[in-house]
TrEMBL record:
<dbReference type="InterPro" id="IPR011146">
    <property type="entry name" value="HIT-like"/>
</dbReference>
<dbReference type="GO" id="GO:0003824">
    <property type="term" value="F:catalytic activity"/>
</dbReference>
<feature type="domain" description="HIT">
    <location>
        <begin position="4"/>
        <end position="114"/>
    </location>
</feature>
<feature type="active site" description="Tele-AMP-histidine intermediate">
    <location>
        <position position="101"/>
    </location>
</feature>
<dbReference type="InterPro" id="IPR001310">
    <property type="entry name" value="Histidine_triad_HIT"/>
</dbReference>
<dbReference type="Pfam" id="PF01230">
    <property type="entry name" value="HIT"/>
</dbReference>
<protein>
    <submittedName>
        <fullName>Histidine triad nucleotide-binding protein</fullName>
    </submittedName>
</protein>
<dbReference type="InterPro" id="IPR036265">
    <property type="entry name" value="HIT-like_sf"/>
</dbReference>
<feature type="short sequence motif" description="Histidine triad motif">
    <location>
        <begin position="99"/>
        <end position="103"/>
    </location>
</feature>
Amino acid sequence: MDCIFCDLKNKKMPAQIIAKNKDFFAIFDINPKAQKHILIISNRHAENFHDYFSKNPENFKSFIEITNSLIEKYSLSESDAGYKIICNSGEKAGQSVNHFHAHLLSGKIGNWQV
Ligand code: AMP
Ligand code: ZN
C-alpha cells in the first residue's frame, strides 16, 4: 500500500519530527496553509479520524497529550492569532492523504476549505 505518511513514519522519506509519543508524531506541513501549520500523524495507519479512534479510543489521551505539548512548545495559547485543530475526513471534506492526521494551525489561514 502506498502511503506518504507511512513512508515518513518508516523513514522511507526524510521527515523533521518536531514531537512524538508512543502513538503519534508531528511535522510541519510541507505546503503550509497558515503561518504555523503542524500535522499530528498517527503511527498506525488508519484512513481517518473515525477509522482510527473507533478502533483505539484509548489513544485519544495520547492525541491530546501531543497536541497540548505542541501548543505549549510554540506558545500558541499566548499567540494573538489563537489556533485551530482540524481533521479533514473524506475527500469532500478536503482530505488528501488517507492516513489519520490532525492539522494544528495558527496565524492567517489562506483560501482553504474547512
Ligand atoms: P489533508 O488534505 O487534510 O489530507 O492534509 C494533508 C496534508 O499533508 C496537506 O496539508 C499537505 O500539504 C501535507 N503533506 C503532504 N505530503 C507531505 C509531506 N511529505 N510532508 C509534510 N506535509 C505533507
Ligand atoms: Zn499510512
